[in-house]
Specification:
heterodimer, A: alpha/beta, Rossmann fold, six-stranded mixed β-sheet, B: mainly alpha, 15 helices, 72% helix
Chain lengths: 546, 371
């Protein structure tokens, strides 16, 4: 497969410029570049979701032109999206045949075919399992199988490791090698350099929309690759000196949240020990499944507490309970000595909680409103935004300009809508806004997700600086390097409970990953994992991970 | 920076202009297709608008429309579609007429009482939809439509002579009896028996209140934020459920006022011939006026013009339903053209931001200053 001179312009920006890539058959070809470098646009072009303005695509020496994903599929190209496209309430078989009913029917023949593919590439997919019972890694394998079922010979994987823990990543790579040995071609998009070097045969680096070079993984170091990728050294989240004090800022005791409120039956669950964690794996929702189960922690002034966990293990519920968007069914939350368990969101914000939401488009911004209105959002009752119930637009505008200056938000002005900024700049605006009200406690959920390297470093700096001045931070992230680098203390959340803690100075991402799948608990030591084998949940780590 | 503002202003005018031109052209096509002279009816309408008595009718009608449209616009700003303005104002007018007839108070107090009762009845009727939406998730579109139908039946029942109504002698009409003079809102007399309802000015003044509350107060910010993104507003500290109920109550209270210009200024009673359908025209006007108090003002005038200037078309041998056709086409044209202009605006802005940034037009940040 060859791409030549691919150029794609969007209003105002050139997403791809003169891209040239040659992918050899039967290899894993990695495409690396930082957020916003144009990787996703390129993939959309390859998959027929967008048409290039210029340039040619050739497959097996034959020029092709795609007008829809259907064309790409017919040519043997399949795509595994970063966000899975599966129907939860259908079985694996039903999901796989959906839209491809004509291929092998929907019955025994299809099931046989799925088994065949699964066995051929070692995917281990059970056709009759319900998708909602599958973990993230299993769902990903279903997605891969779906693509293979449609006869793909070239697979595109968009950031496939973003949602996986290290052990699952290794398993995925084994699958990819299997695919490769069967003569299939894999295009692997990522910005995690270590992983890329581990699995790829060839590497193409994209920066600012164009191909800046290729690398041979056998004699390239992550550092060299990073320099190719961003033109400079990658920022490190590493935090040197400790600023942790012994003054508790936020104390959470026995926090419990149940699905649809706490049912009387479920109360005994709060007393459970970590060892029994798998006994309610498939408990029906009607019984009030515990989304947060007896969560206890204290964050001191100047401390960053990192929470590691596979997404969907209660992080969202924890944030909502701390912010007051949902009420706790049991437990006490104390902020700086004051019980805020029953306070509404606004009271908590006024009381000094800052919030960098995990989904900034849904929870952090009014996309179609100008920047200065977004600066008011969440702090409408506080100075300088309003006085006695009346907005002070002049002061709010002026302060927005200050945030834009101090936090390096790249924008031509504060009257433009939030939607017209890039993700990194949107995030810097949010960070600036939250920091502008001298928070005592900051909830930072995936603070650098989807932002470019430059913004990432600035956001880390902002958090570190505030921490030095006594801010307590709850850091929730899927980026284990960020967690380990930034945190003073680490806890692991699994199925709504904090199952393990670790010292960020000694713990490795692999050890964290083990605990994230529920295979280890207690205090994670750098050298041994005695508690790992004793956990009853170890044999089915991915169940219900979502 | 100014450039963006000018662009935005231009785009704000482009939407309505495009819609109106399209609607008028379409009307002419419809007329031509049915074998009617496409120009002459429009000429007559414009000519009609030149007469002073028609102008007074237009202004008075516009005041009523303005209130109805404000009520709808409050809902729109919060992403709620209050289709029930029609039922709310009719029920409010009827109940307040009954109360106004039953009591006699010194002038201003009498008027105030009638107005307050109207607002409370309107708020109560829309509040039902608000509570249903907040507590049970019932779509306000469905519930307000149903409440409209219920209001119609309720009024028909209440106005029966055996209940609250009166049948004037020698008439088939039913009404609620006449309100005493102390409950009549003073009008602006233009001579020749031409009067502008005093309440019309209250209506336009309310536009200023609407603007201030929405754009300059915390409450207004919360309301707009909830309308723009409920999830973001919730995270910012807005109690979304409370906001749904509050905004529905306010919308209904303003809707309750829509019947006041006529009740206090002219009819002084609620009868079977009390104007209907104002709530629906209000929706059109709020859409056309883009929920802005100034936009709604001009849209209300335009709708009132179409109404009043087309009324005498049949004396010239044309169907006066041409006005209705026009109104209908405006609704369609508004929806389509605003969508088009809106998309164009967003694309254009993103493009400009991209270009300005590429050209180094960003606000100087500390980092750059230091460098």
């Amino acid at each position: 497969m060859e791409l030549h001179g691919i150029t794609k312009r969007f209003p105002g920006v050139v997403a791809n410029k003169d891209i040239a890539i040659t992918v050899r058959k039967g290899t894993v070809h990695a495409l690396v570049g930082e957020n916003g470098a144009g990787k996703s646009t390129l993939m959309k072009i390859l998959y027929g979701m967008q048409k290039p303005d210029e340039g040619t695509i050739a497959i097996d020496g034959e020029q092709v032109s795609f007008t829809s994903p259907g064309d790409a599929i017919a040519r043997g190209i399949g795509m595994v999206h970063q966000h899975f496209m599966l129907a939860d309430n259908l079985t694996v078989l039903e999901n796989v045949v959906l839209g491809g009913e004509k291929l092998y029917g929907i019955g025994a023949k299809a099931r046989k075919k799925i088994r065949e593919i699964s066995d051929a590439y070692g995917l281990g997919v059970r056709p009759d399992a319900l998708v909602e019972d599958l973990g993230v890694a299993d769902r990903q394998r279903v997605e891969i199988l779906k693509v293979l079922y449609r006869g793909a010979r070239i697979l595109i994987l968009d950031e496939p490791t973003a949602v996986l823990v290290p052990q699952e990543v290794d398993a995925l790579f084994d699958n990819l090698r299997e695919l490769k040995s069967e003569g299939l071609t894999v295009i692997f998009i990522s910005h995690k350099l270590g992983e890329v070097l581990k699995v790829a045969d060839d590497i193409t680096v994209i920066r600012r929309g164009t191909t800046v070079g290729t690398a041979d993984p056998r004699n390239t170091t992550p550092k060299q690759l990073a320099e190719l990728m961003v033109g400079a050294e990658l920022p490190s989240p590493e935090t040197r000196e400790s600023t942790v004090t012994d003054i508790p800022m936020l104390t959470v005791a026995g926090l419990t949240v149940a699905q649809g409120g706490l049912a009387p039956v479920a109360t005994e669950d709060t007393a459970r020990t970590p060892e029994s964690s798998d006994t309610f794996v498939h408990e029906p929702a009607a019984g009030g499944r515990l989304l947060l189960d007896d969560v206890n922690f204290t964050i001191h002034k100047g401390e960053i507490l990192g929470i590691a966990g596979v997404e969907g293990n209660g992080q969202t519920e924890l944030i909502e309970a701390l912010m007051g968007m949902s009420s706790a069914d049991a437990g006490v939350i104390t902020l700086d000595g004051a019980d805020i368990t029953k306070s509404p969101v606004r009271k908590r914000r006024e009381g000094g909680i800052g919030y960098i939401p995990e989904d900034r488009h849904r929870h952090g911004l009014l996309l179609e409103s100008p920047l200065w209105e977004n600066r008011i959002l969440g702090h409408v009752t506080e100075a300088p935004n309003s006085k006695r119930g009346v907005l002070d637009l002049k002061a709010a505008r002026k302060d927005t300009e200050r945030i834009v200056r101090e936090y390096d938000v790249r924008t031509p002005g504060i009257e433009v809508t939030a939607a017209s900024l890039s993700g990194g700049n949107q995030q810097k605006l949010i960070v600036g806004r939250e920091m502008s009200h001298n928070p005592k406690f900051l909830i930072a959920a995936h603070p650098t997700r989807g932002v470019d390297v430059g913004a990432q470093a600035q956001i880390w700096d902002a958090i570190r600086e505030a921490r030095r001045e006594g801010l307590a931070v709850l850091l929730i992230s899927a980026d284990l390097d960020e967690l380990i680098g930034l945190s003073d203390t680490l806890r692991v959340i699994y199925r709504g409970r904090l199952v393990a803690d670790a010292d960020p100075a000694t713990v490795t991402p692999e050890e964290l990953g083990t605990a994230m799948t529920g295979a280890a608990s207690g205090h994670l030591e750098a050298t041994d994992n005695r508690s790992a084998g004793t956990d009853a949940g170890a044999d089915s780590p991915e169940d219900e991970a979502r | 920076m100014k450039k963006f503002d000018k662009d935005r202003l231009l785009l704000a005018f482009a939407g309505p202009a495009l819609a109106l031109v399209t609607a008028f052209v379409l009307t002419m096509i419809v007329l031509a297709a049915t074998g009617v002279d496409p120009i002459d009816p429009l000429r007559i309408m414009v000519e009609n608008a030149g007469y002073e008595d028609v102008q007074v009718l237009i202004v008075n009608q516009a005041g009523t429309y303005y209130l109805a449209a404000l009520a709808v616009a409050i809902g729109f700003r919060m992403n709620l579609f209050n289709i029930g303005v029609d039922g709310q104002y009719r029920l409010a007018a009827m109940v307040s007429a009954v109360v106004g007839t039953a009591v006699t108070l010194p002038g201003p107090l009498h008027i105030l009482l009638i107005v307050l009762v109207a607002m409370m009845v309107g708020a109560f009727w829309s509040g039902i939809a608000g509570v249903l939406k907040a507590k049970r998730g019932v779509s306000e579109v469905v519930s307000t439509i149903m409440l409209n139908a219920i209001a119609t039946s309720l009024i028909a029942y209440l106005i029966l002579p055996k209940n609250l109504g009166v049948q004037p002698e020698g008439s088939n009409d039913l009404n609620t009896g006449e309100i005493a003079q102390s409950g009549w809102f003073p009008a602006v007399d233009l001579g020749d028996g031409l009067e502008i309802y005093g309440f019309t000015f209250v209506a336009f003044a309310l536009g200023i209140v609407y603007w201030f509350v929405l754009n300059r107060t915390r409450f207004g910010f919360d309301l707009r934020a909830t309308g723009a993104s409920e999830s973001a507003a919730q995270a910012s500290g807005v109690d979304a459920k409370k906001m749904i109920i509050t905004s529905m109550l306010i919308s209904g209270a303003v809707a309750g006022l829509a019947g006041m210009p006529v009740l206090l200024g002219e009819s002084h009673t609620y009868s079977l011939s009390f104007p209907v359908g104002i709530g629906f025209t209000g929706i059109t006007i709020a859409l056309l006026g883009r929920n802005s108090p100034v936009g709604i003002f001009f849209a209300a005038l335009l709708m009132a013009f179409i109404d009043k200037a087309s009324a005498s078309l049949d004396t010239a041998g044309y169907a006066k339903e041409i006005g209705t056709i026009m109104k209908g086409l405006i609704v369609i044209a508004v929806v389509v053209s605003y969508e088009l202009v809106g998309r164009y605006g967003i694309r254009r802005q993103q493009q400009k931001v991209g270009e300005e940034l590429a050209a180094g037009g960003a606000i100087k940040t500390d980092k750059e200053v230091a460098a």
